[in-house]
Design goal:
Number of strands: 14
Number of domains: 1
CATH architecture: 4-Layer Sandwich
Structural class: alpha/beta
Radius of gyration: 21 Å
Strand content: 15-25%
Bound molecules: zinc ion
Shape: globular
CATH superfamily: Ribonuclease Z/Hydroxyacylglutathione hydrolase-like
Amino acid sequence: MNPLEHELVYPWPGLPAPGEVSELRPGLLWVRMRLPFALDHINLWLLDDEIDGVRGWTIVDCGITSDETKAAWENIFDTVFAGRPLLRLIATHFHPDHLGLAHWLAAGGERRRWSAPLWMSATEWTIGRLLSQTKGELGDEAGERSAAHFARHGLADPESLAKVRARGAGYYSKLVPAVPPSYRRIQHGQSIAVGPHGARRVFEVIVGHGHAPEHVSLFCASDRLLISGDMVLPRISTNVSVFEVEPEGNPLPQYLHSLDRYLQLPEDTLVLPSHGKPFYGLHRRIAQQHAHHQARLEEVLAACAKPASAADILPVLFARELDLHQTTFALGESLAHLHALWFDGRVERRAGNDGVLRFVAV
Ligand SMILES: [Zn+2]
């Protein structure tokens, strides 16, 4: 356990086995599903629900598209669902681990398992739907553009670039082969009532930026529950990256600014994150994130005493050995810190004769 984690309280120290369900509160269930990445699991939430007089389930997020995830869901349908249907799928954001199986779970999918509507924010649904199209520039050329982006920011090793190229081509659409063609839009500040008649929970939608463009978290005031998605995580920091789709983005201040919305919530809120374990210590965790990024910004600024590319910054921010998946995220993160300093006027950007962009302290 890292020292910061000692400042948080985990009311359930154990973990449910992959695909196993654990009841946290009446009608609120936690399930962990496996992911084939360094980040090897995602938490999904099952809520006892009733819509239009029909008793069933609402789920929050759905896992990537894979036979293993489908089998885990089938097992839950057979046991936990107890003959009741899926009534609604809420996806926090477009990332594959959250949206991957929506096409199978929700209405409109070709081989759908249920006909539940998909509830998402407009930006997240649109991006997911666009990226899942395998044909054309978004799919086939994504690897090429991703490699060009990282090369421009100093990734020089031909082998890594070849892997980025190969991985990027159709990467998203492998994990998210389709996104339902229609959805129900949810927006910041909206209330969503979930639960059987007489035992309804009202969740307030809190939109956050910086990790994804219009990420949705759900807060229930009466139960002091926050389904935080990826915006507040206990063990790892939320990924905040500049990728090729928005190469001059400045997501870090957007993320930190969004976090302040969660400071309005009570400190004794139970946080249900998409990765790691449910925890208490929301305000503490937000303070840790601010401190973490402030410290990283100072380190990056110091490293820019001489011109430095995002690739040059990598060892400053990440001491450990990274695999390719992690390297692309780490480069994206390095660039997010460089851009925060650049937009603030604390570093300037220079284009080298080698085509690489470097940043130098003003
Ligand atoms: Zn995410």
